[in-house]
Amino acid sequence: MDFFHTIFSVMYQFGDAFAFLVISCAGLAVIFGMMGIINLAHGEFIMCGAYVTSAAGRAGLPLPLAILCGALAAAIVGIVVERLVIRHLYQRPLDSIIATWGISLIATQGVLILLGPTMAGVGTPLGSMALGERSYSIYRLVLFATSIGLLGSLYLLFYRTRFGVISRATIQKPAMARALGVDTRRVYGLTFGLGAGLAGLAGGLYAPTMTMVPTMGATFIVESFVTVVVGGADIFVGAAPAAAVLAIIRASLTAWYGHLFGQIGLLVAVIIVIRVMPGGLSGFLKRFQK
């Protein structure tokens, strides 16, 4: 029985780490993988989703609807930011990095000034289950299932819908897409809004598990970038394997040596991948398939 408890505990930690990596990197992966924009304001879109979710939850909305409100709010903010700032920087990647970094600083300090250093959150739903001497949050299991559903939904959206076909065509061959009558500016705006909305969804999903502070996005940003870099340019081929590999590394090192060594393990992993596989896991898998 102790062996069973140990196996379940390890699998639970793996699922928790996998869900966190997938959910936190989805929005960043869409914006970077599909548009080539390195969005340093990713954490602030997550913070936006978390704050709106908490406010909506405390206003009386059921948690699922509050999470959707958080994702929608972040998506709207993302579309506005793309229209006002990002749209003018598609051919200037270094400038887009500086611009999104500036947006990050403005958002963090603006929330601190307007709403204060902390905000009342919502409690973690669904309670916990006991297994032996340990208890496990049921909501964490829901997050794992949500991460799987999110990966499947993104694949269906970009490979099985008209929007996905037009979006990929616009990203790969914008001049040809314009020649065929596609409004590429609108596609860029919607794609960036989708990425921001996914970041807001991450904030909303994890709002019940975290303290609401203006800098909470920093909790997600390192893991998000590490997962995207390890996964490579093709988010649909590389995201899931990258999250699985990194989840194993993080869960193992955290269980044996603590949270700090888990973070260090992620950074070491990305250094090794950049050195050995510059194209990330997606580039390696595609080359292997050939």
UniProtKB/TrEMBL annotation:
<protein>
    <submittedName>
        <fullName>ABC transporter permease protein</fullName>
    </submittedName>
</protein>
<keyword id="KW-0472">Membrane</keyword>
<dbReference type="GO" id="GO:0006865">
    <property type="term" value="P:amino acid transport"/>
</dbReference>
<keyword id="KW-0029">Amino-acid transport</keyword>
<keyword id="KW-0813">Transport</keyword>
<feature type="transmembrane region" description="Helical">
    <location>
        <begin position="138"/>
        <end position="158"/>
    </location>
</feature>
<keyword id="KW-1003">Cell membrane</keyword>
<dbReference type="InterPro" id="IPR001851">
    <property type="entry name" value="ABC_transp_permease"/>
</dbReference>
<keyword id="KW-0812">Transmembrane</keyword>
<dbReference type="InterPro" id="IPR052157">
    <property type="entry name" value="BCAA_transport_permease"/>
</dbReference>
<dbReference type="GO" id="GO:0005886">
    <property type="term" value="C:plasma membrane"/>
</dbReference>
<feature type="transmembrane region" description="Helical">
    <location>
        <begin position="187"/>
        <end position="206"/>
    </location>
</feature>
<feature type="transmembrane region" description="Helical">
    <location>
        <begin position="61"/>
        <end position="86"/>
    </location>
</feature>
<feature type="transmembrane region" description="Helical">
    <location>
        <begin position="18"/>
        <end position="41"/>
    </location>
</feature>
<dbReference type="GO" id="GO:0022857">
    <property type="term" value="F:transmembrane transporter activity"/>
</dbReference>
<feature type="transmembrane region" description="Helical">
    <location>
        <begin position="98"/>
        <end position="118"/>
    </location>
</feature>
<feature type="transmembrane region" description="Helical">
    <location>
        <begin position="256"/>
        <end position="277"/>
    </location>
</feature>
<keyword id="KW-1133">Transmembrane helix</keyword>
<feature type="transmembrane region" description="Helical">
    <location>
        <begin position="226"/>
        <end position="249"/>
    </location>
</feature>
<comment type="similarity">
    <text>Belongs to the binding-protein-dependent transport system permease family. LivHM subfamily.</text>
</comment>
<dbReference type="Pfam" id="PF02653">
    <property type="entry name" value="BPD_transp_2"/>
</dbReference>
